[in-house]
Write a structure and sequence with these properties.
Elements (H helix, E strand, L loop, with lengths): L9 H22 L4 E4 L11 E9 L2 E9 L1 H7 L6 H22 L5 E2 L3 E4 L14 E5 L2 E11 L21
Antiparallel strand pairs: 1-6, 2-3, 2-4, 2-5, 3-7, 6-7
Helix pairs in contact: 1-3
């Protein structure tokens, strides 16, 4: 049995993860009844960022972080319970990275995640950096942004798909 291993360039890996993150964010908010529409990241946000959730990830030859930042309306409208919006943005950030992780596993990359960290919105501004452009989305009554910071080593490889847990499935261990 032969194994197929691909050693993508850093640019190819960045493009793959960015594509995965865009789809994952749209589907995540859609699962909670909030429709997102992709917009130009240089456009002025409709409202300032209210809260941000950060989750790190790492694996053999790859490491990075995802920041999910949003104005208050998309966070509140997606929250299925009457609870803390800080807790909810942490959960959304965790689910977003979980979805990214699942897609990376399907591409043969092993990835582990950290616990979410929440930052008040006044610490985060959707500014363009030459090396990282945020994914920007318009939502009813607000904006959502995703930044993906990613580093890969020269020996990073994609291979055979790993087993994946479906979004929303409970895993007991």
């Amino acid at each position: 049995m032969s194994t197929t291993v691909k050693h993508p360039t850093r640019a190819e890996t960045q493009a793959l993860v960015r594509q995965i993150a865009e789809s994952a964010c749209t589907k995540l908010f859609d699962a909670y009844g909030v429709k997102l529409m992709r917009v130009d990241p240089d456009a002025t946000p409709t409202l300032p960022v209210f809260l941000s959730g950060l989750v790190g990830f790492s694996g053999p030859g790859i490491r990075g972080a995802s920041i999910l930042a949003a104005s208050e309306s998309p966070i509140a409208k997606s929250n299925p319970v009457d609870g803390s919006l800080s807790d909810w943005i942490a959960e959304l950030a965790n689910q977003l990275v979980g979805r990214i992780k699942n897609q990376l596993l399907l591409n043969g990359a092993e990835v582990y995640t950290t616990t979410p960290i929440v930052l008040p919105g006044d610490h985060i501004t959707p500014m363009r950096r030459p090396d990282i452009t945020p994914l920007a989305f318009a939502a009813d009554g607000g904006s959502v942004f995703v930044w993906i910071e990613l580093e890969t080593k020269d020996d990073f490889a994609l291979g055979l798909p790993s087993e994946v847990v479906s979004e929303g499935e409970t895993l007991m261990f």
